[in-house]
Design goal:
2 copies of one chain form a homodimer. By secondary structure, chain A is α+β, with helices and mostly antiparallel strands. Chain A starts with a helix and ends with a helix. In chain A, a hairpin with a 4-residue loop joins strand 3 and strand 4.
């Protein structure tokens, strides 16, 4: 437990648990987190959080995920500058999915340079791209 | 493969694969699917799909999930009547999350009788309910 998360877990909720203990992480200690653009409701991306990243997200108001490929905390925008300011967190009925209400810095959430990761739509039996990159991904990651 | 899905997988997409082969199911053969209300952009629920349920969803235009607890296909609304008409499907950059654009019959997506599963929001350090059930869940499931 980090110092910041200890601050956050001090209150007991209606279910008799701290907010962080209510969260049901899976067998690998992870929970999927959906980032939704608070301005237009667009679903930007889905990533995973562990307990530490969720606690840090709430403590700092910046989205922090757990990178499964790199096996470390992934502070969204740490390389690209495309941080996400978290204005609200929701949890579903089973407490096993997190929904983040975010403001997307730079308007680009996807590592491909597009505003969202869901840029392909099934049309006439094929996944067709519905939007082009706003920025060259080569220029995002140094 | 069912007869309906064979119809759906007949075209080859820009990535050289059928739309269904592009989808990256996890080690358990599942992929998370987000149902988003096409009218107001509200994220209603997240459930899981396997290959069969995804193929049937596309073939029928009705959301079909895979129930992990019951280990069987879950045709959304089969008991409650709260079906979901699927107007569009999107997939993310890693092809490991599906986003459904749905019309929610009855305006109730959650088994608790609420319009969406994300009815709890983190406020002052506790998960607080932001909306009440629209219908008594006891009356939904016979």
């Amino acid at each position: 437990m980090t110092q910041t998360s200890q601050v956050q877990v001090s209150r007991i909720g209606p279910d008799g648990m701290t907010w962080l203990d209510t969260v049901r992480f899976d067998s690998q200690g992870l929970i999927p987190a959906i980032a939704q653009n608070v301005q237009d409701g667009e679903v930007l991306m889905v990533a995973w959080m562990n307990r530490e990243s969720l606690a840090e997200t709430v403590a700092t108001g910046r989205a922090v995920y757990w990178s499964r490929s790199r096996q470390r905390l992934w502070r969204k925008g740490e390389e690209s500058g495309h941080t996400q300011t978290v204005l609200g967190l929701r949890i579903d009925c089973d407490a096993d999915v997190i929904l983040l209400e975010v403001e997307q810095t730079g308007g680009v959430a996807c590592h491909t340079g597009r505003r969202r990761c869901f840029y392909r739509r099934l049309t006439d039996g094929v996944w067709q791209e519905t939007e082009a990159p706003l920025v060259d991904p080569e220029t995002i990651y140094r």
